[in-house]
Design goal:
Blueprint (H helix, E strand, L loop, with lengths): L27 H6 L3 H11 L1 H24 L15 E2 H12 L2 H32 L9 H15 L1 H35 L1 H21 L2 E2 L2 E2 L1 E2 L1 H28 L19 E7 L4 H5 L4 H17 L3 E8 L7 H10 L6 H8 L6 H8 L3 E5 L9 H5 L3 E3 L18 H13 L7 E7 L25 H5 L4 H5 L2 H26 L4 E7 L5 H4 L6 E8 L2 H5 L7 E2 L9 E3 L3 H8 L10
Parallel strand pairs: 1-4, 5-9, 5-10, 6-13, 7-8, 7-9
Antiparallel strand pairs: 2-3, 6-11, 6-12, 10-11
Helix pairs in contact: 2-3, 3-7, 4-5, 4-8, 5-7, 6-7, 7-8, 9-13, 11-19, 12-13, 16-19
Protein name: CDP-alcohol phosphatidyltransferase
Organism: Streptomyces thinghirensis
InterPro entries: Alkaline_phosphatase_core_sf (IPR017850)
Length: 592
C-alpha cells in the first residue's frame, strides 16, 4: 500500500514577504454594490428595519392614494372638491375581490392592466376638464385628437415656440409617468392583498356590504353619495360618446345632402341685393356675455351706443338680434360653417363632412349668381385652406397676403384695423365691373386678449409698423391668462376695439350700396363667462338703403347695434335660409 506523505505549510509570519496584507471588512455601501438589486434591498431592510417599514408603509399609502384618487376623480373642474374623495368606489371593491381570487402571475398581469386603465381614465378625465373649461363640452376620443395640435399652436402663437414645445413634451412625459405609476401602484396593492389574504377578504366583504347599504339607504356625506361608481360611469359616458359620434356621422351625411336652396338657379338667388356690396364679418369670441356681464357690459355697451350714433350720422341704420352658436370658447370654424351652410356643424366630423360636399353656403349663393366678385379676408389663416372653394370665394387673403409688416398681437397675426384697411386697399376700394361680396374674419378679440391693439389714425396705418410700440407696451399674455378678473376686463376691451374698428371702417369707406352683416362666432371661454349656459352671440345688419332693413322688418330685431335682452334668439343654422328668403330667393330643394 503506497504511503502518502502530508506536508503542512508552516505558519506565515508578518515578516514573510508572501504573507497577504490583512483586510478590513468592506463597508455596507461596498457590499451592497456587489449584490443584485433584490439582495441589496433585503440587506438594506435587515440593517435598517424601521426605515424599511416606513418606506413600505409610505409606498403603500401613496399607491392607495393614486388608485383611489383616479377612481374618484371627477371630469369637471366645478366638481373637483374634497367631498368627492370621501366616498367608496365600487370598482375598488370589485378589483380587490378579483385580485384575491387569482394566482400570482395572472394577479400581477391584471393589476398592471387595471393600473394602466386607471391612468388612461385619469387622462380622459383631465382632458374633459380642459375641454369643458375652454369649449363647454367634454373630450371626444373619436374627433378631438387633432384639436390638441391646435392647442399647441395656440400656445406657440400666444406665448412662444419654446413654451409650446415645453408644454407638449411635458404633457407626453407626464402621461407616460402617470401610466407607469398607476400600474406600479395597482401591482403594489394587489401584492399587499395577497400577503394578507384572509384580512383582505374580510375587508372586501365589509366594504361591499357597506357600499350596498349606502346605495339602498341613499347615505350621503358632505352633500354627495357615499357609494359611487363614478369611474365605470365615466367609461360608459365615453363609450356612449363614441357610439353617438359614429351614428351621427352617417345621419349628418344624409342631412347635408338635403338642401332647401340647393337646386335654386343663380338668377333666383338674393335678387333683392343686386348691385349691393355685401360684407359678412365675424368678430372673434363676440358673445352675449360681452353685452350682459356686469364687468364687460358698461364698456361694450358704450361702444355699441356710440357706434350706433356715429353710423346714424353717416346715414346708416342697424337692426340686431341673437343667434345661438354651434360652438363655445373656440373652434371658430364650426360657428362660421354653421352660419354659412344652414346646418348645425358642432363637431369636427360634421365640419369635414359638410366641407367635402357641395351643400350651398350663403357666400357661395352670391358666387352662383355670377353677379358678384367673392373674396375672403382671413388674417388667422396661416396655412393651406382648401375650404375656400366650398365657401365659394374666388380669392382669399390670408395672413401673408395683405402686406403686414407690424408685430403679432399674441395669437392674432395683425390688428383688425389693419385687416380692414388692407381689405379696402386690395378689394373694396378698387374700381370694379360688378359688386363685391366679402367674408372677413376679425381676430383681435381672440384669447388671451393681451396685448390688445389700439386704434391709430387710418391714414397712419401704412404697412403696420406703427403698431410696434403699441404691442411692446401692452399687457403680457401670461399675466392675463392666469387671472380671471383681468381676462374679463381685457376681453371686454378687445371687443370694444374690434367693434370700433369695424364701424369706423364703415363710416369712412362705406357707400350707399354697402350692406354689412356682422356677428360673433361664439362665446369666450368659461374663465370669462363664468357658469353662464348661453351660447348666444349678437348679430347685426347695417345699411343705408332703407329697403335692406325693411326686408327683415318681420324679424322683430332691435334697432341699433345692441340687441335687446328679449330680442329673438334663433339657432345660428337657421340664418342662411331666413336671409336668402328675406332677399327674394326662390327655394328649389335638393333631396338626399
Amino acid at each position: 500500500m503506497p504511503v502518502t506523505t502530508h506536508f503542512r505549510r508552516p505558519p506565515q509570519t508578518a515578516d514573510d514577504p508572501d504573507t497577504p496584507e490583512p483586510t478590513a471588512l468592506p463597508p455596507l455601501k461596498a457590499r451592497l454594490a456587489r449584490l443584485t438589486r433584490p439582495a441589496r434591498w433585503r440587506a438594506w431592510r435587515a440593517r435598517y428595519p424601521r426605515a424599511a417599514l416606513a418606506a413600505r408603509r409610505t409606498t403603500t399609502v401613496l399607491a392607495a392614494v393614486l388608485v383611489l384618487g383616479a377612481l374618484l376623480l371627477p371630469n369637471t373642474l366645478v366638481a373637483l372638491e374634497p367631498n368627492r374623495f370621501a366616498r367608496i368606489p365600487a370598482e375598488a371593491v370589485i378589483g380587490a375581490v378579483l385580485l384575491l381570487c387569482l394566482p400570482r402571475v395572472p394577479r400581477l398581469v391584471l393589476a398592471a392592466l387595471f393600473g394602466v386603465g386607471l391612468g388612461v381614465l385619469t387622462v380622459l378625465n383631465l382632458l374633459d376638464m380642459g375641454f369643458t373649461e375652454y369649449l363647454g363640452r367634454g373630450f371626444n376620443v373619436v374627433l378631438d385628437w387633432g384639436l390638441l395640435d391646435d392647442a399647441r399652436s395656440y400656445v406657440a402663437d400666444s406665448m412662444g415656440g419654446a413654451a409650446a414645445t415645453g408644454a407638449a413634451v411635458g404633457a407626453v412625459v407626464g402621461v407616460l409617468v402617470l401610466l407607469v405609476l398607476m400600474a406600479l401602484a395597482a401591482v403594489r396593492l394587489g401584492e399587499l392583498l395577497a400577503a394578507h389574504r384572509e384580512r383582505a377578504a374580510r375587508g372586501a366583504l365589509l366594504a361591499a356590504t357597506v357600499w350596498m347599504t349606502c346605495v339602498a339607504l341613499g347615505v350621503q356625506t358632505f352633500g354627495v353619495p357615499v357609494a359611487t361608481r363614478s369611474a365605470s360611469g365615466a367609461l360608459e359616458a365615453q363609450a356612449h360618446r363614441v357610439v353617438d359620434t359614429l351614428r351621427d356621422e352617417a345621419a349628418f351625411a344624409k342631412e347635408a345632402k338635403a338642401d332647401r336652396f340647393g337646386a335654386t338657379p343663380g338668377a333666383q338667388l338674393v335678387p333683392d341685393l343686386r348691385g349691393k356690396d355685401v360684407i359678412f364679418t365675424f368678430i372673434e369670441s363676440y358673445g352675449r356675455s360681452a353685452i350682459e356681464d356686469p364687468v364687460m357690459a358698461p364698456g361694450v355697451g358704450r361702444t355699441l351706443d356710440t357706434s350706433t350714433k356715429a353710423l346714424a350720422e353717416a346715414g346708416y341704420r342697424a337692426r340686431s338680434g341673437w343667434l345661438t352658436s354651434a360652438t363655445y370658447g373656440g373652434s371658430s370654424w364650426l360657428g362660421h360653417s354653421t352660419f354659412m351652410s344652414g346646418l348645425w356643424v358642432d363637431n369636427q366630423q360634421r365640419y369635414r363632412t359638410v366641407t367635402a360636399g357641395d351643400h350651398l353656403t350663403l357666400t357661395k349663393a352670391f358666387e352662383k349668381t355670377g353677379e358678384w366678385d367673392t373674396v375672403g379676408v382671413m388674417p388667422g389663416v396661416q396655412k393651406a385652406w382648401p375650404e375656400a372653394e366650398w365657401y365659394g370665394l374666388d380669392k382669399v387673403y390670408d395672413a401673408f397676403d395683405v402686406g403686414y409688416r407690424g408685430p403679432k398681437f399674441s395669437w392674432s397675426t395683425m390688428p383688425d384695423q389693419y385687416a380692414l384697411e388692407a381689405f379696402q386697399r386690395l378689394e373694396h376700394g378698387r374700381e370694379r365691373d360688378r359688386p363685391l361680396m366679402a367674408e372677413i374674419i376679425l381676430t383681435s378679440s381672440h384669447q388671451p386678449w393681451a396685448p390688445i391693439p389700439e386704434l391709430v389714425g387710418w391714414d397712419e396705418i401704412g404697412d403696420g409698423s406703427v403698431f410696434d410700440g403699441i404691442e411692446e407696451s401692452g399687457e403680457e399674455a401670461a399675466d392675463v391668462i392666469a387671472d380671471s378678473a383681468r381676462s374679463k376686463e381685457e376681453y371686454g376691451k378687445s371687443v370694444e376695439y374690434s367693434v370700433t374698428s369695424l364701424t369706423q371702417w364703415l363710416e369712412r369707406y362705406g357707400t350707399d350700396d354697402t350692406v354689412l352683416v356682422f356677428l360673433g362666432d361664439h362665446e369666450p371661454i368659461t374663465r370669462v363667462t363664468g357658469d353662464r349656459t348661453s351660447r348666444d352671440v349678437p348679430v347685426s345688419i347695417v345699411a343705408k338703403d332703407p329697403k335692406v332693413l325693411d326686408a327683415i322688418a318681420d324679424w322683430n330685431w332691435t334697432e341699433g347695434l345692441e340687441p335687446a335682452q328679449d330680442a329673438p334668439v334663433w339657432k345660428m343654422s337657421s340664418f342662411r335660409d331666413r336671409f336668402l328668403t328675406a332677399y327674394g330667393s326662390t327655394p328649389h330643394p335638393t333631396k338626399d
